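[User] I have long wanted to understand how a fold can be written as tokens. Those tokens are not coordinates but codes from a learned vocabulary of shapes. Could you go through the record with me and say what the backbone is doing? Thank you; the sequence and its tokens follow:
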Amino acid sequence: MLRLNFRNCRLTSTPYRNYIYTNAVRTKLHLTNLELGDLSKSGRINEARQLFDKMPERDEFTWNTMIVAYSTSGRLSDAEKLFRRNPMKNTISWNALISGHCKYGSEDEALSLFWEMQFEGRSFNEYTLGSVLRMCASLGLLLRGEQIHGCIVKTGFDLDVNVVNGLLAMYATCRRISEAEYLFETMHGERNNVTWTSMLTGYSRNGFAYKAIECFRDMRREGKESNQFTFPSVLTACGAVSALRVGVQVHGCIVKSGFKSNIFVQSAVIAMYAKCRDLETARALLQDMEVDDVVSWNSMVVECVREGLKEEALSLFGRMHERDMKIDEFTIPSVLNCFASSRSSEMKIASSVHCLIVKTGYGTHKLVNNALVDMYAKRGLMDSAVKVFERMVEKDVISWTALITGNGSYEEALKLFCKMRGEGGISPDQIVTASVLSASAELTLLEFGQQVHGNYIKSGFPASLSVDNSLVTMYTKCGSLEDANAVFNSMEIKDLITWTALIVGYAKNGKAKDSLESYKLMIDNHITPDYITFIGLLFACSHAGLIEEAEHYFDSMRTVYRITPGPEHYACMIDLYGRSGDFRKLEELLNQMEVEPDATVWKAILAASRKHGNIANGERAAKTLMELEPNNAVPYVLLSNMYSAAGRQEEAANVRRLMKTRNINKEPGCSWVEGKGIVHSFMSEDRKHPRMVEIYSKVDEMMLLIKEAGYIPDMSFALHDLDKEGKELGLAYHSEKLAVAFGLLAVPSGAPIRIIKNLRVCGDCHSAMKYISRVYLRHIILRDSNCFHHFRDGNCSCGDYW
């Protein structure tokens, strides 16, 4: 038997006391750490800090617990201070602070800490990399992500499936699908559910719907189970391309997998059916939901608006309100879209929705205010749109775009654009750039359009088809075909709008041959023409006298492309027959018209009748126009001129008296010319311009020189109640001639003189411009209400085909 001799056992020895003390301290520290952890996890951070400060002993767990608490709650400054004081920094300490900065978007601080960690020789792990990669993905920091990718390869973490998943998600989120695909195809080891879901989601979010669907099928073949993140992504892809059959199959997988009751998956299923236009199934699923989910209801509202079912969208919105569902900032913009182009009677409902926005506090939300501005602007209620806009505390490019694009006045739109760039300090995006270029085109402001083009190039935005199309249109409408061609040739992708813009542009600028040639190239590129394309083609043929070609294109509309000709097409053909003097074919076509002849058709008949002195047809066309457009002075003026030219002065006087009796005033002719960024306008015999003395002196010089060159004034375009000298002076001071005189004074030699006129240029001014271009050796570009006239060396691009 073993016997212990307690007499010799010294319980109070120093080593034993130290052992007991150390264990007691450790036990107390452990208990205090547990209490510190409980306080931190429950969000009582200040109490945790008080306990931390009172602790006589601290270990790695103590320091890390407090740093994690500060970082996860967003108190990054406190976390940083404590981190710097920490004498026991380890990987967990670094990860905690880096993750906190990543979570709250402090990119510079997070990445600085990441590089500092390596500089100090600290080893990061998969959690460190996961944090910084997620931040790069959420903030779109592609370059930073690529740098971290290099670091991952150097340290061998590219063999870690979780790290590769983070890289794949980062590239996919940053729209670099090819890099994500490469990682997916070449990764070591077995792909897990996260890998497949990341790749599928990347395809879906970046517009590769069919690849997303294929990826989902491959995932199923590999035996990988889908989850609540996989299903919404593939359903979004199905909705994007209206792949209803595939969507139904995915729905079946969801039911079998047990995710039928998951609210996020349910919302995605409803959205898929709605986007595939199966609204009946979407409605049924919406009604069967156990919990009213605002996202699902929003999806239904959005799709009803998109399908033009505005009444149903409003009904759904009303039911959401009745069910006391929490209407959010995504619901309201969808509802406001219902009123953007609806009947005026529904404006009361729109006003009610606006009141609801104010009552619910969403009047401070930028997304909602942007939708309000857009709705009011599209309805033409600019005062209301401006009021909402001016009350906005924070404005972004969408706010300005809504106001600019919805503005019915092109001049106001350009003023707002300048204000956005100046006072707002906001750079334009592709949408507002395309809109402003369109406004520049309508106002023929080439210099302004060129500045917008230059700024867009400097902005570094990727190529945009809508912007490029607007540029081609703007340059053709400003008569700058060289620039239009340069943009067109630089475009990697060209659609129907691109080709049509060039075809119509050539036609309007008197380049019929180039217009028809472009059409042939378009067909060779397998682009199918539309209604507008044929207007451009027939216009080109009309102004070049190409009767056979026009008849071929006109017939092919119906026989080849099944396009029913409209009034514009008939007007071009009638104009062509009328200009050539073939009134027999003109009458045949007029009688064969499938649509009622509109004012455009009768104006073409009237112009042709005036050209060939066909009084009978002229009278019929003029009288019809007087009925169709009672306030239009054109038929009265042209008929009066026809009578005068035929020597029937009494009848001409009767028409003028009738015009006066009916209180119809002729629209005054006005011409504009741009010089050094300023638009100068002129009326006939205008004397308001500050340089008018110089201008009139230049006109006198100009008229003298062109008369010596052979110009003879055409008195048929002068006022009838003046003598010969008065008529001649009146013609000399037409707005076009004043504008070109100013151009000769202000526009540098060698640069084209660009003139815009609100009406068609008169025959006398047209003749004078040819002589002016030859005498002064200038290129004069005159855009009237019908087309462009390029005057060079005494010739005009229209070929005098009047």
User: Anything to note?
Assistant: Confidence is low (pLDDT under 50) at residues 6-12. The longest strand covers residues 670-675.
